[in-house]
Design a protein that fits this description.
It is a single chain. It contains 9 helices and 12 strands. With 335 residues, it is of the alpha/beta class. It has a single domain, classed as Alpha-Beta Barrel (TIM Barrel), CATH 3.20.20.70. Strands 7-8-9-6-5-4-3-2-1-10-11-12 form a 12-stranded mixed beta sheet. Helix 2 links the parallel strand 2 and strand 3. Helix 1 runs parallel beside helix 8 and helix 3 packs parallel to helix 5. The longest helix has 23 residues. The model has no long low-confidence stretch (mean pLDDT 91). The protein binds S-adenosylmethionine (SAM) and iron/sulfur cluster. The site of S-adenosylmethionine (SAM) has 20 residues, from strand 3, strand 5 and helix 9.
Length: 335
């Protein structure tokens, strides 16, 4: 793009969608090995392949200057990366200066130590993944995890003043009988709950079709017990929200496979290596770190313009495809 003058305006893609939401995977590493997310023997990037915290912050800055109002830190497990709290503090300084919200998705294992610092950095809401509250099941699903640490982490987050939304991946034969108890527990604790369909991302060494539980069936079951009122809330992603009237609970349903909500997509995803993925369900990407290192902010802005031109119209997920629709794991681009 020699000689090209990068634009400095809003990020609008070739389909007229305004990009206002950035998810940043700060590391591909994790201290758990959830069966639907990772293989048991995962290979991670060598530390030298990761962007520095300063580089991530520079890229976040450029996005905010171009109209991004929400940033979510994710992973892998964001809180296992040294420097994650520094990054949250640095990005947090943009709050009130274009950035409206800084959030985090975490497995909760390190929240006991880190929830207070996140709140001080300006984080107000976090998502915590919790697929089961039963110790043996939790260990089975995550292959290694201790649910008591996660539950203590959730309590620490609440004590630090963070609003907690629980993310639960609905898994046929593994935790479907815990959906109603989880609804009740979240309602009692004051947490929102989002149920997620498994997505065919990356080889995990297991067959996801066995575990795929379509959420329209779950919704029908819930409607037999509770009054569900559809809420108008939209986040620009695949989540749709209902209120479970009898419990006073806001319930999200993420159904990328049974429904396709790409027309309202407002987001892009940055990996820990600096690759900007333009759709969770496709391979299209632009190397922002290379642009930053080669030409600083000007080259970064030009790369963002190229990214907008390259963003695909829709994902290509199919649960019954012979191979995962996308070879990379969810932990590379975050949820
Ligand atoms: N480690 C953090 C956590 O678990 O919350 C953040 C990263 S994790 C990749 C983000 C979310 O993606 C989690 O809620 C997780 O349950 C979900 N997830 C991972 N792999 C998935 C898959 N193949 N299909 C659907 N959701 C998945
Ligand atoms: Fe780790 Fe989150 Fe993937 Fe589970 S879902 S293995 S906690 S990155």
């Amino acid at each position: 793009m020699a000689g090209a003058v990068p634009s400095s305006g809003s990020l609008i893609d070739g389909f007229g969608r305004r990009i206002t939401y950035l998810r940043i995977s700060v590391t591909d590493r994790c201290d758990l090995r959830c069966r639907y997310c990772m293989a048991e023997e995962m290979r991670f990037l060598p530390p030298a392949a990761l962007m520095t915290v300063e580089e991530i912050a520079q890229i976040a800055d450029a996005f905010v200057a171009r109209g991004v109002t929400r940033i979510r830190l994710t992973g892998g497990e964001p809180l296992v990366r040294r420097g994650a709290l520094d990054l949250a503090r640095t990005i947090g300084r943009q709050l009130g200066h274009g950035l409206e919200e800084l959030t985090l998705t975490t497995n909760g294992t390190r929240l006991v130590d880190q929830a207070g610092a996140l709140a001080e950095a300006g984080v107000r809401r976090i998502n915590v993944s919790l697929d089961s509250r039963d110790a043996d099941r939790f260990r089975h699903i995550t292959r290694t995890g201790d649910v008591s640490r996660v539950l203590a982490g959730i309590a620490a987050a609440r004590d630090a003043g963070l609003a907690v939304k629980i993310n639960m991946v609905a898994l046929k034969g593994l935790n479907e009988d815990e959906i109603v108890p989880m609804l009740r527990w979240c309602a009692g604790e004051g947490h929102d709950l989002t149920l997620i369909e498994t997505m065919p991302l990356g080889d995990t060494g297991e067959d996801r079709t066995d575990r795929y539980l379509p959420l329209d069936a779950v919704r029908r079951d819930l409607e037999a017990r509770y009054t569900l009122t559809t809420l108008p809330d939209r986040t620009g992603g695949p989540a749709r929200y209902v209120r479970v009237e009898e419990l006073g609970l806001k319930l999200g349903l993420i159904t990328p496979l049974t429904n396709n909500f790409c027309a309202g997509c407002n987001r892009v995803r940055l990996t820990a290596e600096g690759l900007l993925y333009l759709c969770l369900g496709r391979e299209d990407r632009i190397d922002l770190r290379a642009a930053l290192r080669a030409g600083g902010r000007g080259a970064l802005d030009a790369a963002l313009d190229r990214a907008m031109a390259a963003k695909p119209e829709a994902h290509a997920f199919r649960i019954d495809a012979p191979r995962p629709a996308v070879a990379r794991h969810m932990s590379v681009t975050g949820g």
